[in-house]
Each structure stands twice: as C-alpha cells, then as structure tokens.
Write a structure and sequence with these properties.
heterodimer, A: 271 residues, alpha/beta, six-stranded mixed beta sheet, four-stranded antiparallel beta sheet, 9 helices, B: 289 residues, mainly alpha, 0% strand
Chain lengths: 271, 289
Amino acid sequence: MSTEDALLTGHDLVLAHHERAVVDGVSLSLRAGTVTALVGPNGSGKSTLLRSLARLHKPREGSVQLGGRAVWGGNALSGKEFARQVTLLTQHRPTPSGVSVRDVVSYGRYPYRSGWRGVDVDGAAAISRAMALTGVTPMAERGVDELSGGELQRVWLASCLAQQTSVLLLDEPTNHLDLRYQVEILDVVRDLAGEGVAVGVVLHDLDHAAIIADEVVLLSEGTIVATGDIGRVLTSEHLSQAYGVTVHVANDPVTGAIHCRPLGRYSPRPA
Amino acid sequence: MSVYDLFLEPLTYDFMVRALASTVVASMVCAVLSCWLVLIGWSLMGDAVSHAVLPGVVLAYILGAPFALGAVVFGFLAVALIGVVRDTSRVKEDAAIGIVFTTLFALGLVLISVTPSQTDLNHIIFGNLLGVDLSDLIQIGVLGAITLALLVLKRRDFTLYAFDPTHAHAIGLNPRLLGAALLGLLALTSVVALQVVGVILVVAMLIIPGATAYLLTDRFGRMLVIAPAFSVLAAVAGLYLSYHLDTASGGMIVLVQGAGFTLVYLFGPRHGIVGKRLAKRRRDAVRAA
C-alpha cells in the first residue's frame, strides 16, 4: 500500500475498552480520493478503529497521524485544527428540539470560528453547498425533530460536509435507512471521493462495501484478516473465516457487482 | 387600591428594593440556564446539584469563605459521587442521584444544627428574600453577571454539547470542559437563587422557565428570550403578591411560576392542551360535515 498520498494513518494501533483490547495491532492508511471500507462482524473493532482515527478514542499503543503530524502526544494538533481536516458521522443521530436543519448544518463551521464570538467568512457558502450536496436545502428551515430517519441522516452528513475536511469518516451511514436513502448516501460519499476526499467508512452490508469501496479492510476479533482491493478481500475464504459462517461470493449476473451471501441451513445452495 | 399602593408603595422600603433587585437577577440567570437543563434532560441533575450545595455553603459560612466556593466544590463533589455510584455498582443513575443529593443535603442540615450562628442558617434552606443586605445583593449581582455572560457568550458551544457530546468533540470542542462548566454554572446559579427562594426551591426556578418556554416555541434562540422574560415577570409578581398578601416570598415566587407554567400548558397557542383539543374538534367537525 502506497503511503505517499496517505492523509490519515494509524500505526500498530492497540485500542482498549477498559482493560480489554478490542483492536490489537492494526495499521491502515486513508488516501486522498479513495474510499476505504472497514468491514467485519460485530465486536471486530471496526467502529472503535474509526473512532480512534477520528481522535475520539486514544490508543493504548501505536499512533494516529494526520498529514504526518501526531494526533496525540506532545506537539499534537489542536481539536479545531484536527476538525478542519477530519470529520466523523457517528451512528448516533440526535434530534435536538428547537433547532432547524440550517442550525445543525452550521455546527459544522465551528472549527472555523475564531475568538470568543467567532467570525467565519466562508461559512454561508460552505453551508449552502453542503446542504445542496445532500439534498436538504428544501428543508433548511424545518425543525430537525420533525424529520424522518433518512432525512436526519442526510442533515448530519451535511453538517459534516460543512466542515470542508479532506478526510471523511462515516460509521455505518446506511444503517436504519430504506433502500433509496441508502444508495443516495453512498452516491454522495462516492462523489466526495471523486473530488479528492479521503473516505473511511464502517459498513455492515458487504454489498455496500463492494459498491463504493476502492479498498476494504476486513477485521475479525481486533485484527486484520485481509486488506486491499475489493476482489482480493471479499472472497468466500476470507469472509467465512472472519464471520464464522459459510459465505458465498458471486458476481451479480446483471450488474457484475460482487455479492456476498451467508449460507444458513435453509439458504438455497449454489448450483 | 391605587397603582401607587400596588407597585410603588412597597418600594419605599429599602429591603423591598433590594429584594426586587435580587429577584430579578436570580430569576433571569436561573431561567437562561434552565433552557439548557431542559434541553439536555438535566432537570434531575439541577435538582441534585442545587440541593447538594447546602453542606458546602454551611461549611463556607463556618470557615468564613465565600458561599460560592463551597457551593461549587460540593456541586462537583455531588456529580463525581453520582458518577462513581452509577459506574461502579448496579445502581442506575436516577437512584444514584437520589442517594447522593439527599445524603449531602442531610449533611447540610446536620451541619446547620450544630453550627452556632448569629444569622439564621435556616434562611439558606427557605430563602430570606426580605433580609437581603447590600453585600448579599452585590454577591448576587456579581455572580449573576458572570454566569449570564458565560452562558450568553458561549451559548453555541453549550447548545452543541447539549445535543451530542460526541459530535461536539468531533468538531473540536472539549465536551468534558463544557460539561464541567455547565455544572459549575449550575452550582453558582444555585448560590445566586439561594437567597431568593432557598435551597429547596431553587430547582423550581431552574426548570419551570425553560420548560414553559419549550412549550411556547420550537426555536432554541427564542427559548433563551422567552424563559427569562417569563421567569422575571412571574418572580416579580410573586414578590408583590407575597408583600400584599403577607405570605412567604420564596414560596410565592415559585407558586406564581408554577401557575404560569400551568396556564401555558393548558392554553399555549401551539402546544397547549386546550388549544390542541379545540383544533382536533374543529378538524373532526369539518370531516363530519
């Protein structure tokens, strides 16, 4: 893996909740214009890994570097400096009362406000653009507590985009969304990568990873099972090993996309 | 009874002027803070901290230290203890809050009972609005101004924190610092309001205005205007009523605030119960026609 254009990198990360290590010696790089999907079974450490890259979980060992600068330790980046370059869409989607969509999107400008009162010259343009990209402009003045799950997810994504960062981290962005919103979110993510953003995304659905990822990091029990191109990582052998269930991998006869199907006792078997 | 008798005659007494001034300051500061408490769901925390400051205030009195210092120390102690009990035992947070604040409050009561004093420490518990002297008024004014200034200047930060501490951290804010700052301000506010309504009733002024404003508007920015306006109006009305009816001033202030909330709850234009019923009946009538 080339590290020349790597924006955000984790080196030999050991991440623990209390005493228990949930990620044990993982290295990865997010590169400009590349979508890197983190996949793996529940408890494999993928969300924790993402949170660590987002400066929300301090590693017990190893380091996270942004553009060659340490995120933790002496001479580390400040919270605002970091937030001008890296943003995270969490799984948690709060619905604050009494706040409009535009308000939530404008929170993304916080890292650009300086001083006590804060002035942000490019703020208005960035907010408009973020809302347009995610299609939330028509609901700008509505209260966020009256939105549906799909709308809300796009609003929080818009808030992240208003941060105008070069790295975008997403934790299961398609969770609890219906089909249309799933593909809409994935499309926006792919568009952003096209503009040169480095994307790191935790995905539950392997087919989603197959659609938008350039690279996949497959985790199991806190370590990397396989990493690299989709075709190399999403194989029956790797997936069966990681998930502990037989996984059949095939190309969709219509679209050609990779399809991963777990085989249960009642699943139809491949001919 | 003329307008003069109603409103100006009481102000010929200096103690009433001081009482009015401290009521206005305390009810305004409490109301602004209450918007966030209602929003974060910290009402119970407001209850806990405002009660738990009692031993701190009494100890400060004994040691001759500023009340505010004792209150802040015990405010944080209470929150720390609640966290410890919640995180290290099977007891859930609401029970932990109940245990910690009542125990600390009880400690305060016991400390009062063994402290010989010229001023009646029971005033801390029930408030002593009519006994506010100039130095009390200055303390209320200074603490109130500091608290209000911090809340207003940092309102966006607190609002962000209130919605989602994780997101706040992700965009470069320090959620621990903001949470601690809110708790510190909560303790300071308790000291401000303590003279007016007493430790027991402070929590009313920390919840009712925010909750009332929340019923009147969907916009947080407007809540920050409506809550203090409502709170000051109700508190001043309560003070005047207590003067004319010769009733307990602290109790009267909270009673009027509670009555105000009830009116809004019933007749509020958007979320009022009566309004909603009428609208539904009208819709049903239209549908039936």
